[in-house]
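Dig into what follows:
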Amino acid sequence: KFGIPLGITSVVVVGGLSREDQGFKLRLGCEIVIATPGRLIDVLENRYLVLNRCTYVVLDEADRMIDMGFEPDVQKILEYMPVSNIKPDTDAAEDATVLLANYNTKKKYRQTVMFTATMPPAVERLARSYLRRPAIVYIGSVGKPVDRTEQVVYLIGENEKRRKLTEILQRGVEPPIIIFVNQKKGADVLAKGLEKLGFNACTLHGGKAKNNVTLHWQALRMVQKIYWLPLMLLVVVLISRMLVL
């Protein structure tokens, strides 16, 4: 949506949708590809997409992708990147005048940007392998929680979670309410349980049709629903974090 007024064409490449339709859009040409690791590898292996002219790579939520086991996929994708536009690992190449001159040519150095909330060893390993002399930018205070958010931790057993959740909801917490889980099946089961208790609940995960997802987000904005979102899908994690912030 942001690119349309600027004349920038974007193509979304994700699982759950037709690979052939996505491949057709890629062949029509685009400036930006927004993709999940698995489907991106799929279109690369089937030659729907070639990255030999790619000059800008963004790894968003790098730590989450690593936690979810996508490190081999990310490495495989980066191996598809051309070596012809890698910036030389020299002091001369870091000169601002040289960098600006290169930016105005057709043979731009490839720039890789990595966003991560934490820096575990696996992410550091990825950075060392594919980033050259990276500039590190910290946003906010490292290790300091957001002071606008009240955080409460309950140390309870697995079999006590349902009872505790019901107790919290029955206190009269103002909607909209977003609840995170780690399994789609568990989300559906618990949503039905909440409905039996009189709560207006619905689920949002990768098993839902796109039109249902759209309606659910609209309902959330209207403050009409209790939402039960599985944390297992990257796109849901990204959107939910944006809402919380």
